Design the sequence.
């Protein structure tokens, strides 16, 4: 090692480090990057790092919290200058696997809300679906425009110590984060311009056009030039930057619930010249808040009567309501069977083995091996409620056991996967240290249209040793390069 | 365009323009009074600042002069302060973020960071000029970016309407504030040079002193200064100029070819024509009556715009 920012890099040998071999050699895809970073003195690198952070702040690429100050305290998402590299060859297979998986999820959703064949054939237990809080009865016996449910899927992958990618979870409700992929790329292009040329990094800036194509492809029947919009909860939502970014980059209106109303079976927005019909709505609010007449009656974010317009086929919602029935962590464990059932193929992307606490034998295993497992509530997102066995005290383990016993359907468990680690610049020590990473990918599906964003959002757990990468809990991000190296 | 977003754009324009005028007024009033030996001038300056910003209380209700300066510029609990104006300008721009250009947004945001991070202690002792001057410059940058990077369509027109109505209102307020000062001076029977000095700061507060000189080639006088600030058709800060500009942008937004009685187009058309043919002799004796009427008219205009376009 040298005396600069990588001076005392400490490879954790029991884990997979994506940049360094166990012996300390640089892995091939990173050789050029390493050479480049190595030229920086600690001081210079600090300067580049600060300048990049400042540029995020100046562009207002921030999220706000309102706890300390009613006018909001703004923070940037921590962003790391060392990119993660996935080789073009490795990516090809991931892309194939992502499309396969999300096509199967779409067929699964169509089935469980209509013919229910997979449940009748007992491939997936019916009670697992019907007991899910996310099974939406307003979607029963209805097929959305274009037959698409999960237009946008955020599939989270991890790289295990065996060097393979595994699926950690599916997110097919309102997966977020794509705007950070694009703004991180923008920032990194300015900082590392030389490298982009050399390594032929795949672009991510085709995402907005792909999303627009996807939206138009599922316009209601008989609509030629669809009017599309993005529905946001408003400027105080933590993801507002992303909502406005997507609307702006697709040239669509960014609407709030109060801008919309329903009249005689159609959805309209209130413009300066009166009402204008809307055909496709990319909604960034949860199912529960969509329509106070059928879901949460106190919702101020949605539009009264929207579900009625939807069921009449006069507006397309992206994603369809009720998709949550397919991405909870209990259904996840059936994904290999689901893919086999609908496509007759073996799953290209492997699941992390999952124990279903509702099966008595599996629950016993979980209770007896809780120290070696990660236990997750089935229907929580954002990394909340996750129990990591090897970090918990004896009392905490006992508490967890009691919770599982009292509500087995609520929990699944997985072996503690050794999320790979990656060299990450740490402000406090002004040098690179290994940190755990995962990868959120983005897959789009329209009518006869599929697209996978090249790379995705590499999320970093900034706390040393932590496995939780969510931004709400101290996570940061890296740019992800699909590169010919 | 969404009515709510049109409202955001309009208010974004108004708050930017307001921040600029407040900053300039604070700057000009404060510094012009510094090198006068009379306490009267200094007292008048502070009073005038309080009036213009619309703070509660009078000079006596503040323990220290710095407290007034902080309340006007940096107090985030005071919704009329420059800092609050900038906060609201940015919130409104954020609500229309997908429609304004990235260049406009970046200019707003960069400026917001400047104001947000400005150290209060430095401002109180050394930073007043820097703070107000940088604010004025940044407002100019934002306005230039609106002009040069946005499509000149109805979205732009709503921002422009915000600029012009706010400018007309602020100029009107400045005139009211200064003519109130001048009346006070007249009552006190002090020398004429004090009144002339006030007219000078009035013109400077609209960045109009040098152009006034070009127009009249005399030192500031009451009648000429009033005429210049209210009726001059070529001075971009006169009330008449801004009302005419408002009329133009409204035409760009308005769809209907005919102008209905009592509509906003009708109302502003009448006002614009009236100001074109008005003479200063008609109101120079009692400028405050005229100015208060005009201000009331401009506020009604805002209500009409709300009713016809922004009501969602």
Sequence:
């Amino acid at each position: 090692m040298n005396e600069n920012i990588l001076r005392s890099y400490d490879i954790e040998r029991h884990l997979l480090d994506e940049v360094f071999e166990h012996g300390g050699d640089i892995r091939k895809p990173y050789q050029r990057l390493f050479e480049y970073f190595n030229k920086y003195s600690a001081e210079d690198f600090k300067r580049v790092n600060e300048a990049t952070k400042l540029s995020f702040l100046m562009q207002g690429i921030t999220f706000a919290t309102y706890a300390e100050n009613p006018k909001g305290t703004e923070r940037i998402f921590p962003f790391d200058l060392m990119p993660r590299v996935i080789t073009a060859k490795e990516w090809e297979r991931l892309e194939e696997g992502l499309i396969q998986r999300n096509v199967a999820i779409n067929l699964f959703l169509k089935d469980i809300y209509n013919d229910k064949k997979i449940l009748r054939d007992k491939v997936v237990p019916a009670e697992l679906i019907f007991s899910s809080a996310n099974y939406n009865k307003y979607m029963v016996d209805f097929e959305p425009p274009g037959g698409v449910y999960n237009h946008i899927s955020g599939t989270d992958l991890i790289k295990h110590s065996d060097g393979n990618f595994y699926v950690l979870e599916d997110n097919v409700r309102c997966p977020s984060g794509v705007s950070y992929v694009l703004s991180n790329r923008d920032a990194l292009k300015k900082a590392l311009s030389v490298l982009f040329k050399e390594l032929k990094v795949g672009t991510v800036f085709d995402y907005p056009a792909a999303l627009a194509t996807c939206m138009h492809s599922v316009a209601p029947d008989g609509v030629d030039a669809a009017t599309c919009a993005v529905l946001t909860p408003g400027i105080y939502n933590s993801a507002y930057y992303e909502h406005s970014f997507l609307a702006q980059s697709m040239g669509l209106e960014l609407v709030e619930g109060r801008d919309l109303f329903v009249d005689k079976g159609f959805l309209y927005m209130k413009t300066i010249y009166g009402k204008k019909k809307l055909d496709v709505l990319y909604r960034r609010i949860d199912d529960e808040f969509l329509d106070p007449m059928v879901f949460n009656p106190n919702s101020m974010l949605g539009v009264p009567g929207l579900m009625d317009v939807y069921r009449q086929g006069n507006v397309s919602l992206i994603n369809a309501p009720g998709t949550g029935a397919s991405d909870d962590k209990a259904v996840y464990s059936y994904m290999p069977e689901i893919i086999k059932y609908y496509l007759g193929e073996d799953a290209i992307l492997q699941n992390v083995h999952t124990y279903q606490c509702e099966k008595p034998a599996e629950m016993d295993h979980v209770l007896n091996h809780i120290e070696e497992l990660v236990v997750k509530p089935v229907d929580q997102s954002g990394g909340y409620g996750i129990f990591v066995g090897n970090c918990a005290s004896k009392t905490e383990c006992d508490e967890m056991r009691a919770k599982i016993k009292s509500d087995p359907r609520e929990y699944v468990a997985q072996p503690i996967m050794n999320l790979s680690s990656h060299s990450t610049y740490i402000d406090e020590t002004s040098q690179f240290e290994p940190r755990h990473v995962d990868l959120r990918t983005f897959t789009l599906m329209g009518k006869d249209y599929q697209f996978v964003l090249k790379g995705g959002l590499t999320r970093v757990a900034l706390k040393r040793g932590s496995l939780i990468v969510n931004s709400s809990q101290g996570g940061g991000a890296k740019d992800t390069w699909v590169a010919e190296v | 365009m969404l009515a709510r977003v049109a409202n955001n754009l309009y208010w974004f324009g108004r708050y930017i323009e307001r921040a600029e005028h407040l900053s300039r007024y604070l700057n000009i009033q404060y510094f012009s009074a510094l090198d006068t030996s009379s306490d009267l001038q200094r007292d008048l300056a502070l009073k005038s600042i309080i009036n213009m910003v619309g703070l509660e209380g009078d000079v006596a209700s503040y323990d220290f002069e710095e407290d007034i300066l902080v309340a006007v510029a940096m107090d985030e609990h005071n919704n009329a302060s420059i800092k609050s104006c900038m906060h609201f300008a940015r919130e409104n721009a954020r609500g229309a973020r997908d429609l304004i250009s990235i260049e406009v947004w970046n200019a707003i945001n960069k400026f917001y960071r400047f104001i947000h991070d400005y150290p209060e202690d430095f401002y109180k002792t050394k930073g007043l000029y820097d703070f107000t001057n940088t604010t004025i410059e940044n407002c100019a940058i934002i306005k230039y970016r609106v002009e040069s990077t946005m499509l000149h369509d109805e979205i732009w027109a709503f921002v422009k309407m915000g600029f012009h109505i706010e400018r007309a209102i602020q100029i009107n307020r400045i005139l009211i504030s200064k003519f109130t000062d001048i009346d006070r001076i007249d009552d006190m029977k002090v020398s004429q040079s004090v009144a002339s000095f006030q007219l000078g700061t009035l013109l400077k507060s609209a960045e109009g002193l040098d152009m006034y000189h070009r127009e009249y080639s005399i030192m500031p006088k009451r009648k000429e200064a009033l005429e210049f600030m209210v009726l001059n058709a070529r001075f971009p800060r006169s009330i008449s100029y801004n009302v005419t500009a408002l009329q133009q942008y409204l035409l760009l937004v308005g769809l209907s070819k005919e102008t209905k009685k009592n509509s906003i187009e009708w109302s502003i058309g009448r006002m614009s024509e009236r100001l074109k043919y008005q003479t200063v002799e008609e109101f120079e004796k009692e400028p405050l009556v005229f100015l208060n009427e005009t201000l009331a008219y401009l506020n009604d205009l805002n209500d009409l715009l709300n009713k016809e376009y922004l009501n969602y």
Residues 328 and 387 of chain A are 17 Å apart (CA to CA).
